[in-house]
Specification:
The protein is built from two helices and no strands. The protein is mainly α. It has one domain. The protein is flat and about 40 Å long.
Length: about 70
């Protein structure tokens, strides 16, 4: 049986690392998002929402909305 699970990660990103974050933006390029983009994971992985930790409250509201949208599709 296949089930979807929500995994919350806190990723530390070196914005001066030209390989992991060549554009310096940790919200668009980091080790997790890069793996998703490059299809490294064995099963489908979808980015729901990415934000700075200082934006956690707003982030959690958007995650809730995104999950609700996923289940209403």
């Amino acid at each position: 049986m296949i089930k979807k699970v929500l995994v919350t990660l806190l990723v530390t990103v070196d914005t001066e690392d030209d390989i992991i974050t060549p554009n310096g933006d940790p919200l668009t390029q980091n080790v997790v998002l890069n793996h998703i983009e490059n299809d490294v994971y064995m099963y489908p992985v979808e980015e729901i929402y990415t934000s700075h930790i200082s934006d956690y409250v707003e982030h959690s509201k958007r995650v809730q909305k995104r999950i609700e949208d996923l289940y209403h599709d």
